[in-house]
Amino acid sequence: MKLDIVAIAPPDFDVDVTLAYATDANLTGRPVYRNAECWLHREAAAKLAAAIDLARPLGYRLRIFDALRPVEAQWALWNVNPDPEFIADPRRGSPHSRGVAVDLSLLDEQGRELDMGTGFDAFTPLSHHGRTDISAEAQRNRLLLMGLMTSAGWDFYRNEWWHYQLFDARRYPLVADTDLPRPMM
Predict the structure, then answer these.
(1) Is 52 exposed, middle or buried (0-12, 13-18, 19+ CB in 10 A)?
(2) Where does Zn(2+) bind (predicted)?
(3) What distance in Å separates the CA atoms of residue 25 and residue 20, rounded to the nearest whole number?
């Protein structure tokens, strides 16, 4: 299958790529990705570039925790935590497995991650958008991230402050590890 994907990495994209699933600091307790490759569909990459351009004059950079997630990786996450509130059922397909979703946060000018009230992949109701039982600073930071991402054309997932995806994500094909130019798993 010919994929229309783009590698997300400096210098083409001024982002901090810190793929959680390439480390053991994730819900599986081990690396899911053997190779820390960050990919997005070309249309998602263009919207990411727009978000980067919106964040830059405000003194912020984006930190990417995950982007394209091969179908095999989606199964690995589902097998550890089959909770459809936080992990898409791989039988239906995840926007991540289509290359049209990104998990991310914001960094300040010193490269420190902004307080978002929970960490990435905190599978708790406190991770939902619109929470008022987190600090006012974390609420502002989440709204800042949402403003940047939605202004750049992304849709948000209400249960995860870190997850953004393209509208109509299901129209994009699912991507297996063997489809990638350089395998991740």
Answers:
(1) middle
(2) 96, 103, 163
(3) 6
147-179 burial, b if ≥16 CB within 10 A, otherwise e?
A: ebbeebbbbbbebbbbbbbbeebeebebbebeb
3-state secondary structure 123-184: CCHHHCCCCCCCCHHHHHHHHHHHHHHHHCCCEECCCCCCEEECCCHHHCCCCCHHHCCCCC
**160 catalytically annotated:** yes
Q: How far apart are CA 79 and CA 117, in angstroms?
A: 27
Residue with tokens 């978002």: 116
Tens digits of residue pLDDT in 144-169: 999 999 999 999 999 999 999 999 99
Q: Is 132's pLDDT higher than 90?
A: yes
Top CATH class of 5-179 equals: alpha beta
CA pair distance 143, 87, nearest whole angstrom: 22
Binding-site positions for Zn(2+): 96, 103, 163
Q: Which of 43, 85, 113, 160 is catalytic?
A: 160
Residues annotated as binding site?
96, 103, 163
Give the Cα separation of 125 and 44 in Å (integer): 27
